[in-house]
Amino acid sequence: MGLCRRDFLRWGLMGLAAGGMVTRSVYPIYGTEEEEPKRGLEYNPEDHYYGYLIDTYKCIGCGMCVQACKMENSVPEKFFRTWVERYLIADNGEDLVVDSPHGGISGFQPEVTKFNITKGFFVPKMCNHCQNTPCIQVCPVGASYMTEDGLVLVDFKHCIGCGYCVQACPYGSRFMNPYTHTADKCTWCYHRISRYMLPACVQACPVKARRFGDLKDPNDEVRRIIATERVGVLQPDLLTKPKCFYLGLDKEVV
Amino acid sequence: MLEPTYYSFPNDLHIHWSLMIVMYPYITGLVAGAFIVSSLYHVFNRKELFPVARFSLGASFAFLSVATFPLLNHLGHPLRGPLIMITPNFSSAMAGFGLIYAFYFLVVLLEIWLITRADIIRYARQSRGLKRLMYKLLALGVYDDSPEALEFDHKTTKVLAGIGIPAACLLHGYVGFLFGALKSNPWWSTPLMPIIFLFSAMVSGIAMIIILYQIIMVYKGITINSGCIQSMCRWLWLFMIFTVTLEMLEIITLAYEQAEEWEVISHLLTTFLPFSFLGIQVVFGSLIPFILLAIIVLMNPYLTDRLRNTLAFVSSFILLIQVWSMRWNVVIGGQIFSKSFRGFRDYQPQFLEKEGILASLIIFALPFIIMVIYEKIIPSFEGLKGREMITEIEPTVQYKGA
Predict the structure, then answer these.
(1) Number of residue pairs across A and B with CB atoms under 8 Å?
(2) Which of these, A140, A221, B31, B273, could form a disulfide with B92 (CB 3.0-4.6 Å)?
(3) CATH number at residue B304
(4) Is residue B7 part of a domain?
(5) Of chain A residues 154-183, which have a CB less than 8 A from chain B?
(6) Chain A within 8 Å of B90 (Cβ-Cβ)?
(7) pLDDT tens-digit profile of B247-268?
(8) Ranges of residues in chain B whose predicted pLDDT is under 70
């Protein structure tokens, strides 16, 4: 007695569903193979120290990172945990246009300038997770804190919403969340990286202009580039020691 | 840095520290200034200030009582406000506020109690019913008004006032430090900031006492003490000269250095703050009172009491506006430019918003209501006889009270 086609499909689909459920329970689905979590490894913050690398030569200003961040972290409208800036600079070195329409979330339209553009580039920005961070220093209640793996986070349940950290951050990375009434900022997607996944913006970048790495890992590519290439940080004179490094940083970028 | 291209960081949409944060240093400044007037009498024996010594302490208490209100109204989570004292992060300048505030409040309360204790006992003995109970509660069960006890009170008051001076300076210097210690903002980040705040606090406090003293005296039909007004005007003139000099030094230094921040600050001053800074703070608020006070101080023998009082009143009123505009220019001015140093945003306070004009007016009215109640319970201008009993100091300038 052979299976009819209908039974074959029924049993086949049920079998696939059951198999899928078993697999799902053993191996949670995490997305692409590239950022698949290191299964079986319990996350220990002490074993890591993260750094972020932005290659401004590669960034095409598509805004995918901003979109990914908005969706991943439910960032309130009009505010940004990450954004992309465009710099258009004249040959005289004095005229320039800087913009970031809606944080660059929908990319950039061609800009007509009054001068000849000789230099143009995109600069993604976000919280620099500084080592010597002014925001943690000024938080009166300790709601802003640094994790052992080097991230600067905000405890939303403890933040009193004074906004002192927003004033203290020289990079404009913090904002007051209009819904939680607390300070808000980029977390480098801590909920993802603590599961050995990449931050949403890094994963979404189509040209690998954004890279995320573990500075404690001797084989890490980001660590190697920071150690061997000429990298810069934003506003180094403030000695905040950002952990967000840039390749191809221009003097006009603040 | 190149010319501003009007680019603000995307998160620099609004001014976050609003009118409430303008009111906060203004009110704490009045606290410190009023306390200094009282201390000039109690510690430095400026006996000509006797008529206002006790009242200025009450005024300091009234302003101190509401000093936290603007902050609490500003907080995103006001109910979490006490966490500043419960889980303070001591690397934060703001965390010190709770402790300094609490300590200072204690000093002021103790000083008021010691100064008014004899009166409270007297009222407790004279009054009946609920009023008697209230005074008995205020007396804290201590009814010893012997000359020895009052002498002890007087000495302790002197010590407390001595402690209170650095505490007042700390309270307000610290408010300046809140701004001055932020390296992210070149308009705020200067070591001069706490000192400027401190001196302008003295200016506003003394000016407020001059105005209130005159109003109360007119209301009560008591002759205004010329020596007292003259003395306060001298102090006011001195402190305003210090304040304006420091304010101008800061700007001149920035302009002379021509460092990169000057580009954005010069744009700020000429485009966004020409009225409130150049117009109100510098010309109207500083120059006119300087001239009026100079007339009072330098031409004293030629002035009639009425003219002196009028000049003092007008210059004090203008100086109150000057100090307020200084707070505005610091707090709001420092947020008008984006941290990109290329873009600007404007701020127009709304009348009815949570941190708007009406809320500010209500908060600012509260100390005066407290003062009225305070004066009803423990009058400061009751007459010389009772006062002599309390202070046991014979003022050189006689109080022409009723």
Answers:
(1) 130
(2) A140
(3) 1.20.1630.10
(4) no
(5) 158-164, 166-176, 180-182
(6) no
(7) 999 999 999 999 888 999 999 9
(8) 1-5, 383-402
